[in-house]
Amino acid sequence: MQTLSSLPHFAAAMMSPLFEVYTVYDDLEHEFRGSLLNDIASIPENELNQFKNQYAYFSSLMSKREDIELQWKLYFLIEELEIQIGKLRKQLLLDESLVPPPFGHPDLMDTIIDKDGLVYMHELDGYGGGFCKGNEVFTLAPSTNAANSTYWLLHELYNAELTEKVKIRLDPLIHHPKEHFQQMSYRMQVYGKLLDWERIKALKFSEQTEFIPDNPDKGDILKTEIIWKPSDDEIHFTCEELPKKECLNKRGSRYFHAILRKDSGIVEHCDGAIRFYTDDQFDKRLTMHIKENETTKAGTRIKIFHVTNLSQQSLINLITSFFVWNHDILIYFNPDLKS
């Protein structure tokens, strides 16, 4: 389908299209309602019919007291908006200009960014789940196409141990003046539990793990790969959550790297990133495991955050928050939850 005329509003909205589409449709005075109605009217019939066949189970979610055809069209638009927003964010995050968005915003003109497009978190003022500079509030770039995928990670980055050392990537799409900034709150608790660090520090050979979701037909995760790789004085931890190939148009993989000192046990470095792949790059990546050095060059990596010199517990909290919704990672670091 062609680019939706209502895309500018929904791409910048604090709420997911799953909620915001209905908010706009129900508000007869909303400035983007006309655009939304035009998008509804322009849905190609053949694409809508394909959507109905693919998501037939949606019928059970529909209210029988309302226009069924309209409900199908709204569901279709929600899905299409998720795809188009994901594509747009991917395009902007891959922008190689010297001033990647949103750093062209007037309130960020004097902000220093590094070569990875990151800025020290303490240079911005915390503001209701966002970061304020001047009169504008910016947000942390999400790790998947879901705008709330870094919501729980953000809580960990506010840890007093990390605050002065964390660098973050700002979302190129979602930022608003203070008076219009209202972030949703989500209820979830992610627990982090220490591994047997003495065993990890004593590794003589690489230790690798691969997870396939219990219900591979559900969700958008293909598999998750982990490796602990020892060197002379360090242990390198690397983890990548690979999405299903059909999801590459709206999200990348989630990628995490950390370096643990053998002598002190201090984590001297860690970062979380998104990796964007072309179809050909992804096909090649699937022929390898993360243990192979060539995988470090696969795709295009966009860092979401970077922090140095942190405790093992803070590392675990960051990992489990960064990979939120990945059940295998949660159980790997919390084996007691499996029972």
Largest sheet: 8 strands, antiparallel
Strand content: 15-25%
Strand order of the largest sheet: 1-5-12-11-10-9-8-7
Low-confidence stretches: none
Helix-strand category = alpha+beta
- How many domains? The number is 3
Spell out the helices and strands N to C: HHHHHEEEEHEEHEEEEEHEHH
What is the percent of helical residues? 25-40%
Mean pLDDT: 89
Radius of gyration: 21 Å
Taken from the alpha-carbon principal axes, the silhouette is: globular
Question: In words, what does this structure look like?
Answer:
The chain has 339 residues and is of the alpha+beta class. The chain has three domains: 7-93, no CATH class; 106-180, no CATH class; 197-338, no CATH class. 29% of the residues lie in helices and 22% in strands. It contains ten helices and twelve strands. It has helices at 7-12, 17-26, 33-41, 45-54, 68-93, 151-157, 197-201, 279-285, 312-322, 327-333; strands at residues 119-120, 125-127, 130-133, 136-140, 167-168, 170-177, 207-211, 221-230, 234-243, 253-261, 267-276, 300-307. An eight-stranded antiparallel β-sheet has the order 1-5-12-11-10-9-8-7, covered by helices on one side. A four-stranded antiparallel β-sheet has the order 2-3-4-6. β2 and β3 (130-133) form a beta hairpin. α6 (151-157) packs antiparallel against α9 (312-322). The longest helix has 26 residues, at 68-93. The radius of gyration is 21 Å and the shape is globular. The mean pLDDT is 89.
